[in-house]
Amino acid sequence: MANSDLRIKEAFYTLQGEGARSGRASVFIRFSKCNLWNGRESGRKAALCQFCDTDITGIDGENGGVYSPPALLELALKLWPSNAGGQPYVVFTGGEPALQLTDNLVSAFKTAGFETAVESNGTLALPKNLDWVCISPKGKSEVIIKSCNELKLVFPQEDLSPEQVSNIQAQHYFISPMAYYGESDIESHQSGMIVRENMQAATQYCLEHPKWRMSLQTHKLLGID
Ligand code: SF4
User: For the whole model, what pTM was predicted?
Assistant: First the structure.
């Protein structure tokens, strides 16, 4: 494997489900691995981020694999519907994309006509040439990105309140009700109750703090990825 090779968990064409660009057709590229959790249930309790609801390990998802940067661009171009109109839009997500995403890769996508976006936990440096940056701080991790297009906070978090991150400059501030409810609760009736409680708490927070807007995971409501 060459140094520049990229480990991709999955890549697919879908609608952006969350935040300011919710509903926009997008190519999603999910990078494998995160710096805040090793992706294994046995490591969840010790992780800096303990409520991840995504499979972030390996390269075994749809279109997953090890790609050179040109091969990844070629895949993204293939996923975007030809002659569909509208500017092609790519969302680099993860896992933590900052572990692998480079200025050169972003440049290559932009040269090919893509508008480029990233979803990151904000703890690592990001390429400077991205068109849209969404930061989602997690727990006790140290966020080093202090300015972004949208700040999305999963709520409520035991170790992190909106007040603790409201110094980060953003065009949009979003509260996203926590959907993860613990492995042992997934099959139980408890799960729906906890999610409902989180939604009520998030609603109340937005009503009391209008700087923050509600962001729902509309892709889950629509039953898409
Ligand atoms: S920071 Fe994001 S990708 Fe990483 S473990 Fe947390 S939710 Fe998952």
Answer: 0.93
